[in-house]
Each structure stands twice: as structure tokens, then as C-alpha cells.
Specification:
The chain is of the alpha/beta class. The protein contains 11 helices and 16 strands.
Length: about 325
């Protein structure tokens, strides 16, 4: 019988630091560019009261293949990752994966910021105060010396509470601003991480030379950036062009209006591997469109499994022949 390790949310949170996620996500993007991964776009299946969403990938360099599956029913989301060993096909891990997804989503923006933002970028403007926003800021602070964060969210109490919590955790001054344009003022790195259906970041607010991580929209009927943002951008990068064509709501109007062509959208893996374009000037505006990829979940999950075994975290059950 094979042994499968089970990890709960609290165990994942205890085991997985942002530093490890950043290192792993950067590696998996490099493998993507050199054809060493197979990543399938998210599949969404409708259920009577919600959705089942499934994302499979194979990452031989990490010794793992598998999938993330999650349900969205009556407003509640539940995540699980299944890991199989690439050499034998054995099921080796079953993890609750909400925290895993938070951390790897933040890490993807961190990697994009590392390669696309100016080296002297030190002010962040953040749109969104939800559960994904904090890991975005944690990852960015890990790759740049940030001296101030400006955050905007529609709910006054929530944005003030979020600003205090992030400041306490990251030891960086965080200002909760009253108007959305104030979050972009003077910012050299911007993050949009909302569930808004209409743009929260006006392209006219973006400072010359800023890098934008657009991480909230993975549905065609939702857009966090307006067309002007793309009109001003010198470089647009996605985590996966294939997946962006299916679900990147931010790019629907820019492509429709001819502001951006899909051939002009590069993949982050190309940039990381040195096979694609980089920032060309201090004044250039760059945009990273993050949809969230299964290969990130599988690669990070594989490292998580190694840590769990080394530290005897989680429990093992016998499963399969």
C-alpha cells in the first residue's frame, strides 16, 4: 500500500513561508518557458448552486503532477490539492489549499515585480483589502525595499483595519486612503486584487515607470483595469497567454479595441528565463496579468510535501496498491 500525507489549512500555514513560495514559483515559471511543464487552463463546471473548478498540471522537475479542485457554493469556497509522483503515479499528498493558493498567488506577483518593476521602486498602491491582498504585499515587500504602502478599499472600516494589520505584520507604514486615485499617487508598484466587475484603477492615474500587478480578474465579465492602462503600457505580461485568452477580463476591451494584440502579450516565464522582453526604460509602464496556474499549486505543493515529511507534520494514511 502507498502512503498519502494529509495536511490541513493550519498545517499548510505553519509550514509554508513566502520565501519558499517565491523561490518555487520563480522556478516553475522558468520551467514553463523551456517546455518542462504541462499546464491546463481552469475548467469550470456548473452545479445547481455553484461551481466546481478544476486545474491540472504536470511539473516533472518538481517530481509531481496533480490538480487543484475547488467548489464555490452559496458564497463559500473550499479548496483541495491532490499530488501524484510523476515517476510512479502514486497519490502522495492531499492538502487543504486555501492558504496555499493565497501564498502562491502573492508569490506570482512577487516574481513579476522582481523582474518587471524598477529596481528603486519603493511605494506600493494597493486596490483591495480582502484575504488575498495581504500576501500580495508580503511578496512585493520581499523583493523590493518598500518604504510606504497606500491602500484603497470601498469599506472605510475594513481598509483602516487592513492597513493597521498589514503595517503590524510587514513593519512598513501603510496609509488607508479615502479616494482611489490617491492609492496610485507616487506609487511605483500597483496591485489590484478585488472582485470588482468594473475597473478600479484608471490608467490615467498610473505614474510613469510604474509596474502593475493585476491579480483579481479571472473571468471575462470582470475588469480591474481600464483600456487607458493598456494604452499607456509598454509591456503586458501574463502568467499564461492560453489561460488569459480564456478568462482575463482586463484584456477583453483592449483587445477588442485594437489597443493590445494577443501576439504582444508575453508570458512571465519567458521574462524569468531571459527569453522575453524586460523593462526598457525607467519611464515604461509594465502590467502583469495573473490568472493563477495549476503548475504553481503543484510545484508549491511538492515543496510543501517535502517540508511536511521532514518535520513530521500532518498525518499519513494507506491508500491504493
Amino acid at each position: 500500500m502507498g502512503m498519502v500525507r494529509l495536511l490541513t489549512e493550519s498545517e499548510v500555514a505553519r509550514l509554508l513561508p513566502m520565501s519558499l513560495a517565491l523561490e518555487t514559483v520563480e522556478s516553475v515559471f522558468r520551467w514553463q518557458a523551456t517546455g518542462q511543464t504541462v499546464n491546463c487552463p481552469r475548467v469550470r463546471l456548473r452545479a445547481p448552486r455553484g461551481l466546481l473548478q478544476v486545474m491540472p498540471a504536470s511539473v516533472p522537475e518538481a517530481g509531481a503532477m496533480g490538480l487543484k479542485a475547488y467548489t464555490v457554493v452559496q458564497g463559500r469556497v473550499r479548496f483541495v490539492v491532490l499530488l501524484f509522483r510523476t515517476e510512479t503515479g502514486e497519490l502522495v499528498g492531499i492538502f487543504e489549499a486555501d492558504r496555499l493558493g493565497q501564498i502562491r498567488t502573492g508569490a506570482a506577483s512577487g516574481v513579476a515585480t522582481k523582474y518587471l518593476a524598477r529596481s528603486d521602486a519603493d511605494v506600493v498602491g494597493c486596490y483591495g483589502t480582502g484575504y488575498q491582498a495581504e500576501t500580495q504585499l508580503e511578496a512585493i515587500c520581499a523583493v523590493r525595499e518598500i518604504r510606504r504602502i497606500q491602500v484603497y478599499g470601498r469599506n472605510v472600516d475594513r481598509r483602516q483595519g487592513f492597513a493597521k494589520a498589514v503595517a503590524d505584520r510587514l513593519k512598513v507604514p501603510v496609509l488607508a486612503v479615502e479616494r482611489p486615485e490617491e492609492a496610485a499617487r507616487g506609487a511605483s508598484i500597483l496591485v489590484t486584487i478585488t472582485n470588482s466587475k468594473t475597473p478600479v484603477l484608471n490608467g490615467g492615474w498610473i505614474e510613469p515607470g510604474a509596474h502593475v500587478n493585476a491579480a483579481g480578474s479571472n473571468a471575462l465579465d470582470r475588469a480591474e483595469l481600464d483600456v487607458e492602462a493598456f494604452r499607456r503600457a509598454a509591456l503586458v505580461v501574463a502568467d499564461s497567454r492560453e489561460q488569459a485568452e480564456i478568462e482575463c477580463g482586463d484584456l477583453v476591451e483592449p483587445v477588442k479595441q485594437g489597443v493590445v494584440a494577443w501576439e504582444q502579450v508575453h508570458e512571465l516565464g519567458e521574462v524569468v528565463a531571459g527569453l522575453g522582453p524586460r523593462r526598457q526604460s525607467a519611464e515604461a509602464i509594465t502590467i502583469f496579468e495573473s490568472q493563477g496556474l495549476a503548475m504553481q499549486d503543484v510545484a508549491v505543493g511538492s515543496r510543501l510535501l517535502q517540508l511536511a515529511r521532514a518535520q513530521s507534520v500532518g498525518r499519513e494514511i494507506e491508500f491504493g496498491a
